[in-house]
Amino acid sequence: MALSDSLESLREFDLSDLDFENIGSWPQAVKTVIWALAFLLVGFIGYKLYISDLNISLDSEQSKEQKLKDDFRDKADKAANLDAYRQQMDEMEETFGALVRQLPSETDVPGLLEDLDARAVSSGLEVLSVELQTEQVNEFYIELPIQITVQGTYHDLGAFVSGVAGLPRIVTLHDFTIERGEEDDGSLVLSITAKTYRYRDEELELGGDEQ
């Protein structure tokens, strides 16, 4: 009966009858409704300010967890194949070392210059200059650059380049430029760097340093 009476009084109540200067005189049903609304409002604000932030943090942590799982799985796969990777590396180093050791221990510069000159002449070119550059020391080998300048027709230059590439010793060509010759005969001037290589014999070099 008390509940039905409260509801009935709430329906019959007029908000204009509320005395905001004396809240204690308000009917119990109105107080109950206001407290319920206040509780819901506080709960809603708390959810937005606290629980919502927790959900965002949870999503972030779940993303980190998934990334860590993926990283762990990737590292686990690598660890499982570590021995195979090491064996492949050893085989590659052995193969590379064997190829490098096939390079000559000394560079036959006079013989190489004769070969280059012979290729140029046989290709119908005029040799303008051949200049030895400073040796470049690398970890396993030493390279000797040779700056070459020749003059002739376009086809003669192509024959010369092909001839150098076909030399029995290892010679690579780099940094070429082609310009018109000074004479008005259609000739071209080719400036190119040829590099030959030799194996870096550490024992010989150390022996030479000790002397």
What's the helical proportion of residues? 55-70%
Task: Please compute the radius of gyration using only Cα atoms.
Answer: 45 Å
CATH H-tier superfamily of the largest domain? Ribosomal protein S6/Translation elongation factor EF1B
- Count of helical stretches: 6
- The top level CATH class name of the largest domain: Alpha Beta
Summarize the structure.
With 211 residues, the protein is an alpha+beta fold. The protein is built from six helices and five strands.
Please provide a written account of the structure.
There is one protein chain. This protein has helices at residues 2-12, 28-80, 82-101, 109-122, 154-165, 202-210; strands at residues 126-132, 136-137, 141-152, 171-180, 188-199. With 211 residues, it is α+β, with helices and mostly antiparallel strands. It folds into two domains: 1-80; 109-207, Ribosomal protein S6/Translation elongation factor EF1B (Alpha-Beta Plaits, 2-Layer Sandwich), CATH 3.30.70. Strands 1, 2, 3, 4 and 5 form a five-stranded antiparallel sheet that branches. A hairpin with a 7-residue loop joins strand 4 and strand 5. Helix 4 (109-122) runs antiparallel to helix 5 (154-165). The protein is elongated.
Write the layout of secondary structure elements.
Blueprint: H1 2-12, H2 28-80, H3 82-101, H4 109-122, E1 126-132, E2 136-137, E3 141-152, H5 154-165, E4 171-180, E5 188-199, H6 202-210
Antiparallel strand pairs: 1-3, 2-3, 3-5, 4-5
Key structural traits:
211 residues; alpha+beta; Alpha-Beta Plaits; 2 domains; 5-stranded antiparallel beta sheet; 5 strands; 56% helix; disordered C terminus
